[in-house]
Design goal:
Blueprint lengths: L1 H11 L4 H18 L4 H26 L9 E2 L6 H10 L7 E7 L4 E7 L7 E8 H6 L2 H16 L2 H21 L6 H40 L1 H31 L8 H13 L5 H8 L11 H7 L16 H4 L4 H22 L3
GO molecular function, one term: metallopeptidase activity
Family: Belongs to the peptidase M48 family.
Membrane topology: Multi-pass membrane protein
């Protein structure tokens, strides 16, 4: 039964609630039909029937119709990011004529998702999100391999099952955003109904995501080359570790003791960009090979990903070329995005500081 529920959610996403609504309506219809003939039994079961029906309708309204949280990322058109669009079109010709969106956010990461609007009646909308730190730190070769990895997810249909599962969980969490389970009866009821299901779905999502990452690495390696894919993985691991040590870890300490917003992240990245991108010992990559894997991670261990590509040791990444941001974004876009994201940072931190966080 649990496996059946999972398969329905993988197939339908948030629209998996519709069979539940249909079942609740059927129960209500049967109850209404037997009311005249079996009045006492109908009255006795009325609380159960109406509870089921109202709970199903509340879930349906919450999952299907509540407005989603707004994107904090920036939508980049072909004038803003001509190089990124060119790489995406080159690697994924099957989607050239489809409905697509390219977004830039603040993460040192990239992702791709597929949205079936109105249960797929109006086709698929594919969104790729690329982090500005990724473009600033990696070179064009590495970014191309990362995009090939994301395109592989779409080609292997990972964006259908995995995205539908994530979509259902995000929609359920969205219900709690509008109906706090600690302060509203609706939120409390929904949490009782969904708590165990969401826990299981999160475990399934992490396991499915790790499997998909390995498959996408292999698929991308066939397109851009095994060496290029492995090189990108090493650069992501090394530069990501340096980014944490030089930028985000010190920033987190300053925020904890701040009385006003400290220097924003992108200003710090620009100050440390040479150290983050500097060629040197692959200490971070070597350490990652023996690091204990986080069971809550949606990505497999670094060593497993390299072994999946046929590597037992850290491959040589060669010369780190010029930053990809100048080649893939328009001349003014990088500065505009950096300023835009940094302008949002003081507002966010000031909220934390004002409540003593």
């Amino acid at each position: 039964m649990k496996r059946l529920i999972l398969q329905i959610i993988l197939r339908l996403g948030r629209y998996a609630i519709l069979p539940v609504v249909a079942l609740a309506c059927t129960i209500l219809a049967i109850w209404l039909m037997i009311m005249d003939r079996y009045t006492i039994a109908a009255l006795a079961t009325a609380p159960i029937v109406f509870t089921i029906f109202m709970a199903a309708m509340a879930l349906a309204i919450g999952l299907l119709f509540l407005p989603s949280r707004k994107h904090r990322s920036f939508e980049a058109d072909e004038e803003t990011a001509p190089g990124l669009w060119a790489v995406w079109n080159e690697l994924d010709r099957s989607f050239v004529g489809s409905n697509r969106t390219l977004r830039v956010d603040t993460d040192f990461n990239a992702s791709i998702s597929e949205e079936s609007r109105y249960a797929g009646l109006f086709g698929q909308h594919v969104t790729m999100t690329v982090g500005l730190p990724l473009l600033m730190i990696l070179d064009q070769r590495a970014v191309r391999a990362v995009i090939a990895h994301e395109v592989a997810h779409a080609r292997l249909r990972h964006t259908s099952g995995g995205t539908n599962l994530a979509d259902f969980m995000a929609a359920a969490e969205n219900v709690f955003l509008y109906a706090d389970p600690e302060h509203t009866v609706t939120g409390y009821t929904v949490r009782i109904l969904l708590h165990s299901l969401l826990e299981r779905l999160e475990k399934e999502y992490r396991a499915l995501s790790r499997e998909n990452e390995l498959a996408a690495d292999v698929e991308a390696a066939e397109q851009v080359g095994r060496e290029e894919m492995a090189r990108a993985l090493v650069m992501m691991e090394v530069c990501g570790a340096r980014l944490t040590d030089l930028v985000f870890a010190p920033l987190q300490k300053e925020v904890l003791g701040a009385i006003k917003a400290p220097l924003p992240p992108f200003a710090r990245i620009l100050d440390q960009i040479a150290a983050i991108r500097a060629p040197g010992p692959m200490t971070a990559a070597v350490a990652s090979l023996s690091r204990e894997h986080d069971p809550d991670s949606t990505h497999p261990p670094f060593g497993q990903r390299l072994a999946n590509l046929g590597y037992t040791d850290i491959p040589d990444i060669g010369e780190v070329q010029a930053s990809a941001v100048d080649q893939l974004l328009s001349p003014d876009a990088a500065n505009e995005l950096t300023c835009r994201f940094d302008e949002e940072w003081p507002k966010k931190v000031q909220e934390w500081v004002s409540v003593g966080r």
